[in-house]
Design brief:
Chitinase_II/V-like_cat; EC 3.2.1.14
Amino acid sequence: MHLKQKHPHLQVVLSIGGGSSAAVFPSVAANTLYRDNFARSARGLVDASGLDGIDIVWEYPCDPQQGHHFLALIAAVRLHMPESHYLLTAALPAGRAVLQYIDLRRTADYLDFINLMAYDFSGSWTHRSGHHAQLYALSKDESSGASAVQYLVSQGFPSQKILLGIPLYGRSFLHAAGPGQKFKGVGGDNGTFDYNQLPRRGTKEVLDKKHIAAQCVGADGGFVTYDNPDTVKMKASFCKSKSLGGLFYWSGPLDAKDSSRSLIATGFRALHSS
């Protein structure tokens, strides 16, 4: 609210859902009455707060039926929040394991943007270390930002409605020196370090130009994989070459305060450069 009051020209949406949303969204989306109540409540909250729309974060529709219900949910929301007056976006993962269940061509009829979560490709749950936000995969079996964009477009989702996600945190793999290695545990806060804490003290930041990822090795984090200003510039260039809608970041408070290290500032400059 304070941000909107200070910058009235800024479009601000309310994000609904998140990591625990899988326990709630399936039952809401499966019922016509619940969908309508959700849509009415969302509009009422947006109007009362003076905001511009909502962002639906259902993590994640996990089968064809839930994919169908996801489409029905956003259709209900759009009915109550028409495109001429409200923004409607949704956050979706980059993996085909989820995207395959959603009719992406029809989804585009209702959404202004997809926030493509092109991160968390590797972490404490994987058998080996890996870049967690790579633009290009190390192997054909891995997910990546570029492969997700290609899949979305191939399924009829307009490129200009895709926002490529940038994580403002890194993922740690202890006792590993790079991607594709066995590791023993993770450092930081449940395996993550805020971007403004990277690179770790006493380590050297290294750029993987082939896969578009940054990393540092050593100290208390082991192998830590993340985005830095160089990778964000490359991802912004990719966005422009593929006619994407732009970039989004998760989440803002974790960014560096120094403009030269800020990923948000770097992305803005890169997207608006000639």
